[in-house]
Amino acid sequence: MRQKRIILKRGKEESLLRFHPWIFSGAIDSIQGEPDEGDLVDVYTSAGDWIAAGHIQIGSIAVRVLTFDRIPVDGEFWKQRLGTAFAVRRALGLVDRKDHNIYRLVHGEGDNLPGLVIDIYGRTAVMQAHSVGMHVDRYAVAEALTGIMGDRISGIYYKSETTLPFKADIERTNGYIKGGPSDDTPLEYGLRMPVDWISGQKTGLFIDQRENRALLERFSEGRSVLNMFCYTGGFSLAALRGGAVLVHSVDSSARAVELTVNGVRDNFPDDTRHSAFARDAFRFLDEMEPRYDLIVLDPPAFAKHKDALKHALIGYRRLNQKAFEKILPGGILFTFSCSQVVTKEQFRMAVFTAAAAAGRNVRILYQLHQPADHPVNIFHPEGEYLKGLVLAVD
Length: 394
Description:
The chain is of the alpha/beta class.
């Protein structure tokens, strides 16, 4: 039995009885055993009843719950959780395909492993910790992952330098913690995807837009496409394969534009339909001529915390209004928000307001979300972060 314990205030166990995996600092009455940040602690109610165990850390979210069952958190625990996650991806048809080898294996709370993300790119697994506890347990997780994946992976790259809590007193070094680089090509439904897990954003690719890229491909034939905030150009590649007559990719990052250009060259050598621009998105939209009849707006998160919500909604209204003003009649707009604090209803209202201000008649064709390998724990609705709309603009 662990001697490091959290004692909750009276009545603060209610969310845990509903299996919510977070314990906020204000719910804690006392801490026993002097745990270090990242340690595993047992959680007790004010009446002295054991209720959960998880990683403790400094901050508003004081404990991320790993289990509501009184079981050891050891090698078998990690292997069981990772095995369950792997079985889901295999059932989704994402594993052992010749045309596709990119998917998310672990999605934090959605896979009952709060604070942990693992993405698969061919034979490389990229692991990312968002909590000190997962950082502390990274080698145990890597060992279990090797047992689950076998020769499907040849290397595990640990990339958490920018995702760990800012004030945590820990060493922050990215690098391979098992194996090394692989020479195989990351494929998304047959497209060679430019992935940079060493210096790129997230784990190297926004995997969560995979199915939405496939949908955009179906709309692209004969259209002139503008891909704003293109990052590595996934939507641009889908549009080109879908038969677009022209594709322009825009990102403020010169590195992102370089990756996009490389991806187009690898998939469509000598194709003259594509051009890329390292430009500010709002300025590009202000200055461009109305020449596009398919526009993608996939900006970075405008709000990462509730204090920024008001300004984020203003940003979404402004961005979408510019697109509505410039898109050609009969055009299609794919527009997204990945801000967790922005609800589906708030985002939809921001887009509605933008359409009204632009004086365009708009119809909703699809309401989009994150794919099935980014599952949402039903007891943790905060995990539903990606929302999108496909709009027909008259």
